[in-house]
Amino acid sequence: MLRPVFMKKIILSVLLLSLGACAGALLQRTASTPVPPDRVYASYPKFFTGAYVTVRRDPSPKEIGIGCENELYIDNVRSFTIMPGEYVTFFLTDGKHVLKVDTGRGSCQGRPGAVEINVSNGISQEYKIFSPPGDVLRLFRIM
């Protein structure tokens, strides 16, 4: 018979492992593909001052087969539709901008979320879309 202390350690270990499995895996750049031109709705030409901003979305596990879309708005302009495993890079001028992510068509659930970013000349930024089920969609800065 196992001791209660030993059983608690086993149960705690199993719980920690299962929680770790739920965490998003790091997105490998080689695994992501750019958003195709037919889902680019606005252009952001390079200007004298500003920087590149990249927004990435983790791939869906193949066994789930989720094909939901996320719409990315820049300063209230619908700019891109991002599918799982895709990224988009665009140029923004110096100053404050608002990035908003919303659900598109498909099986996505969640409420729109937005983040205000401050672009400084030459300092690139990278964000990851995080979509917890039934919660507010979020953009997390990863670089």
Description:
This protein is mainly β and 143 residues long. The protein has one domain (33-141): Immunoglobulin-like (Sandwich). Helices cover 13% and strands 38% of the residues. It has 1 helix and 9 strands. The strands form 2 sheets. It has a 5-stranded mixed sheet, with no helix packed on it. A 4-stranded antiparallel sheet has the order 4-3-6-7, with no helix packed on it. The chain is globular and about 60 Å long. The termini are far apart. The model is unreliable at 15-30 (pLDDT under 50).
Q: Biggest sheet: strands side by side, in what order?
A: 1-5-2-8-9
Oligomer: single chain
For the largest beta-sheet, the strand count, sense and barrel status come to:
5 strands, mixed
Cα radius of gyration in angstroms: 19 Å
Point out poorly predicted stretches: 15-30
User: What is the mean predicted local confidence, pLDDT?
Assistant: 80
CATH architecture: Sandwich
Distance from N terminus to C terminus (CA atoms, Å) equals 51 Å
Q: Kindly provide the name of the CATH class.
A: Mainly Beta
Number of structural units classed as domains: 1
- Estimate percent helicity: 10-25%
Structural class: mainly beta
CATH topology assignment: Immunoglobulin-like
Report the β-strand fraction as a percent range.
35-45%
